[in-house]
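Notebook B, p. 112. Complex prediction, attempt 2.
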Amino acid sequence: MPSRKPRPGEVTVELPATYDAGIYFIGRIRTPWDRREDCPKNSGESQAVCTIEVDARYAEALRDIATVSHLIVLYFMDEAPRDILVQAPNHYKKPHGAFALRSPARPNPIAASVVRLLRVDGLRLEVVGLDCRDGTPLLDIKPYFASIDAVPDAIVGWHAAERA
Amino acid sequence: MPSRKPRPGEVTVELPATYDAGIYFIGRIRTPWDRREDCPKNSGESQAVCTIEVDARYAEALRDIATVSHLIVLYFMDEAPRDILVQAPNHYKKPHGAFALRSPARPNPIAASVVRLLRVDGLRLEVVGLDCRDGTPLLDIKPYFASIDAVPDAIVGWHAAERA
């Protein structure tokens, strides 16, 4: 597991000795950003076209995907430290809990990003809305249902307060 | 891994012999539904209050969570078969690819649900918007940012066509 030196105000934890379940990498995400430090701070900052490459083994699971306008993409941020519970990202004023942040650093570094699907070409999906490093392992692709996933009036209070 | 007899039109796959990464169960989700077959078909069908119980080990990661109105909850659907790539859910007319469905059956059975946060009481979060079995393992909690997560005009074409 990658780790880094804690910043002032950060809190780390001793993680359990063993995992509780296993996951498969089902493909890779191709992006313009080779290193973590080159990535946009969040997906809203970039309109770059990225490509989701699904392993041939899972080809059949893509049936009907081309009819979907937006996807929820789950991927594994394999370079993130997993033991930071309170984190002080450089671009915020104060430290915050990992579960109140979208930072990659969390016990299970699984990102969930909403993307717009531009085109399907066999095992390759061109999308807009990702902010991860080139080569990031893919975990899942889901259709985005506005009826259950869209909450335009949702509020992140601490975030609004820091920007005010 | 749980499995079940394939239905007509379904396609299964031989999964890899080993996992690529491990995940921790960081808590449990308490719901009114003891068995999979009692659960609502999707979270939009229920206004039941459910409780997310976070393990004491991760308490610090909850800092500032009470200021967030909606969360994205990731959890592990440990009773779902992982080898079904094309699936024929009873309530749809035709089989569809796992990546075009929100079914628990998928290579990595990780659900992503948007919930409304009602109350935080120590390690317990009362929420509305879950549809999983009581005792489901928790993987992650994230703040929902309307700016990147809300897409009210998203379309799932195959789904709209089947309802037309």
